Amino acid sequence: MQRITAPDESPAAGWQRAMYAFLAEKERRSGSARTVQSYSRMLRDFFGRSAKTPDEVTSQDVFTWAYGTGLSGRQPGSITIGARLACLSSFYRFLIRMKVVASNPCDALERPRVVQGSPRGLSADQIQRLLAVIPETPVGFRDRAIILTLILTGRRRAEVLGLKAGDISEDGSPYYSYRGKGGKTGKREMPRPALSAIEAWLASTGRSLATQEASDSLWPDTRTGRGITSGTFYTNLRRYLKKAGLPPSGVHIFRHSGAKVRRDAGESVGEVSSFLDHSSLAVTTTYLRRLEGQEDKSWAIVAEAIGL
Hints:
The chain has 308 residues and is mainly α. It has two domains: 11-108, Tyrosine recombinase, N-terminal domain (DNA polymerase, domain 1); 124-292, hpI Integrase, Chain A (Orthogonal Bundle). It is 53% helix and 5% strand. The protein starts with 10 loop residues before the first helix and ends with a helix.
């Protein structure tokens, strides 16, 4: 095995440098800053808890962490466990390629069978109920603007919460630039109601798009001035849903809702696919089938045949 440290650095510094190199390679290959941030968070959590260097880690250490409770205090689901194992295994494959460790402790563990949750989308009436309970305060104006942007653009949570003032441009019609899943970039028309909600939110705090720096977050926290965290928005969302008499849900429900309302309004699978920025119609078809359920046009024939 090659040594991981330079002659004048500590072993801990050497392993830290190896982690940075892994994350840098991951960003170049995936093009996704979100993936890198997620991997960095998981690796730091694992090695912080185990208090071991990578060459000391055992399969038992990996199992305890992957299936253990996280910062939320809840037991992880199959998707979370799978993500943890994928992250750690990827790091060890990198270390093996660099010839600094000989084996991957993740190889001895079975990956859990992923159980997909049933996606849900709010109807147009439910969206109206939700919007009606959001207060007309600066925080309420901000959250309303975020919700409308999520629904009307179909973009994912990180893509919307990561928007900067400079991402909004006027070229006859308003446009927004985004960096999507897998590093995909694009520029799309910003729906007018979403833009109006954004302008109302900024005006409620004495700002406007024209006075914002290009690098300023579109959603600065009213207390810190920094970009709102997904945790803060999620906490507010749960309160709004409860007040509107709607079941608790995550932020991704708005992407489902945007697709659902468009389908209910008569848009084709192809049009919804373009809205969601899916890679193929097959992906959208599967997505909509899980969201809407699959119609059975023949059950009546069977029922009649058996005398029901």
